[in-house]
Amino acid sequence: MKKKFSLILSFALLFAFLLPLSSVSAYEGGVLNGKELSYGKGYVTEDTTSLVTDNEDSTMFKLDPGKQIWFEFKIPVQLIAYQLKVASGDATKLGMGYSRYSGAHYTYFSTPLVADGNKTYGNSYNDVHFFKLVNSGTSPVYISEFDVFINSEYYELTPPTNLVATPGNSLAKLKWDQSEHSTLYNLYRSETKGGPYKLVTSTSATYYSDSTVTNDITYYYVVTSIDKNGESSYSNEALVTPSINTNTPEPEPNPQPSGDRAILTITMTNGSEKEFDLSMSEVNSFINWYDAKEAGTGPAKYGIDKHSNNKGPFSKRVEYVIFKNILSFEVDEYNTVTTPTK
After folding, report:
1. Which of 52, 130, 179, 184 is deepest in the core (most CB within 10 A)?
2. Inter-CA distances, 66 with 26, 90, 99, 105, 136, Å
3. Tens digit of pLDDT for each residue in 198-253?
4. Cα–Cα distance for residue pair 163/174, rounded to 1 Å
């Protein structure tokens, strides 16, 4: 009896190994995997569905006559294969087509389509923007799974996040988080919440100081990501109201220097940094000039003695910084005189 039970168990295990893989893994790997597809007629969205991209045979979507499901690729892709599983209905009435980024030209895959759930290769299609599956028959077709395959990595260009605006005197300072795949950013501005927005600048940095603003007017900013394939949607909106009375808050009122010298690091709006080893009196003179200029008074430039960086036959070297080109500065104090211990 024990031997018979072992034999039955062995056959059961062998049978399990010979069974096809479950649908949960059978459809993975396509670019539509798990994504929402639009449903409607003539690219007018009536609903969305992920029932045909959920890697599960037991779920299905009813594609009515004259209707289609489609997906918009955010970057141009090259289609090389598709995978379609029809649960019921006339699969010969289904057609697949695409439009190019270069224009609204549709071409259909050869029909009838293979609808048994296997990956089917055909001609490759380049520069694909929209891809659709349409029911040209007179009765519904129930689709279990649908996916397409491309010859490269697919990504969707996302907008930058955490856009923050800080006011200054006739100045708006913007910064945001880097967006993956982005090579450039477009910064837009409006005087109306929600736009319409006008382009302020294009930059490869993740910050910008807008000096073309007017005090006491509220501005609304958004930023987008740019790569070789196009531009993302807008980021979050950040508002700012420049003012002559705007002062950068200090961590404590009337802070006192704790050292006799300091490293003054100035970050410019183009991303470069300038570093100076100065006495605290020189640093305080720079801070007083900066605060006065931010309040609307004083010269537009400030000269900083380069001291030990004076290379060459010069009696003195002074580097001038322009107020509107300064993004931020940092002061790191230190002592040159040590207090003897008892």
Report:
1. 52
2. 29, 13, 18, 19, 5
3. 999 998 888 999 999 999 999 999 999 888 767 888 999 999 999 987 655 544 44
4. 7
Domains of the chain by residue range: 18-150, 164-240, 261-334
| pLDDT at position 251 | 47
- Cross-strand partners of 326: 268
Query: CA–CA distance from 57 to each of 87, 89, 135, 250 (Å)?
Result: 8, 15, 20, 62
Q: Residue 259: pLDDT band by 50, 70, 90 thresholds?
A: low
Cβ(290)–Cβ(326) below 8 Å = yes
Q: Give the 3-state DSSP-derived string for 16-42, with helices as H, strands as E and coil as C.
A: HHHCCCCHHHHCCCCCCCCCCEEEEEC
Q: Give the H or E element holding residue 7.
A: helix 2-18
Query: What is the architecture of the domain spanning 18-150?
Result: Sandwich (2.60)
**CATH architecture, domain 164-240:** Sandwich (2.60)
* CA 80 vs CA 69, 113, 123, 169: distances in Å: 19, 15, 7, 56
What is d(CA 187, CA 159) in angstroms, rounded to the nearest whole number? 11
Q: Give this prediction's pTM.
A: 0.46
| d(C-alpha 303, C-alpha 14), whole Å | 84
Higher confidence at residue 26 or residue 166?
A: 166
Q: What number is the average pLDDT over the span 137-142? A: 93
**Does residue 41 contact residue 105 with C-beta atoms inside 8 Å?**
no
Q: In whole angstroms, give the CA distance from residue 322 to residue 229.
A: 37
CA distance 266 to 323: 11
33/149 Cα distance (integer angstroms): 10
**Contact status, residue 322 vs residue 266, Cβ threshold 8 Å:** no
